[in-house]
Specification:
This protein is of the alpha+beta class. The protein is built from six helices and three strands. The model has no long low-confidence stretch (mean pLDDT 94). Bound molecules: iron/sulfur cluster (2 copies).
Length: 149
């Protein structure tokens, strides 16, 4: 099935999207596969450059997408009813942007028509991460980054 070319993301609420539309919103930046730290006092979220070891570092996609929660129990499954939990996603994520009633960026593949533009724009995690099977969990706070908000 192909995705509707009539900019469905501009006139369809997240909860009303059909499966193929919903899935096409993901730009495959891989940012949601980065480990995050939460400040217990403030609830602030900090991203690190440590990424799930299952990710394909070139495509920034999950090779085990269907089975991901069996492999990684706390792997996120985004839901249109997430509410405040959309803050767990990076500010560039299409799901968070649409939840916040903001437009997609020009580099989003739905707009550019090119799956590479998310990488060319420096949005994806390609070439910028350490795998979580190489990093000592006790030192993960040394990996906090500021290129994801
Ligand atoms: S952060 Fe959002 S757009 Fe990027 S890979 Fe995750 S779900 Fe897709
Ligand atoms: S299991 Fe897949 S989707 Fe989940 S965090 Fe790891 S690479 Fe990302």
């Amino acid at each position: 099935m192909t995705v509707d070319v009539l900019n469905f993301w501009e006139n369809t609420a997240l909860e009303d999207m059909i499966h193929v539309q919903w899935e096409s919103l993901c730009d495959n930046c891989g940012r949601c596969c980065l480990h995050k730290l939460e400040d217990e006092d403030t609830g602030d979220i900090y991203f690190t450059d440590v990424v799930c070891h299952y990710i394909d570092e070139q495509s920034c996609q999950c090779p085990h997408y269907e089975a991901r929660q069996q492999l990684v129990p706390d792997c996120l499954t985004i839901d249109s009813n997430w509410g405040d939990k959309f803050n767990w996603l990076p500010s560039t994520c299409a799901y968070r942007l649409l939840h916040e009633k903001k437009p997609l960026f020009d580099w989003h593949p739905l707009i550019s028509g090119d799956v590479e533009t998310v990488h060319l724009a420096g949005i994806s995690v390609r070439g910028r991460t350490f795998s979580d099977d190489e990093v000592n969990e006790k030192e993960i706070d040394l990996h906090i980054i500021n290129w994801v908000k």
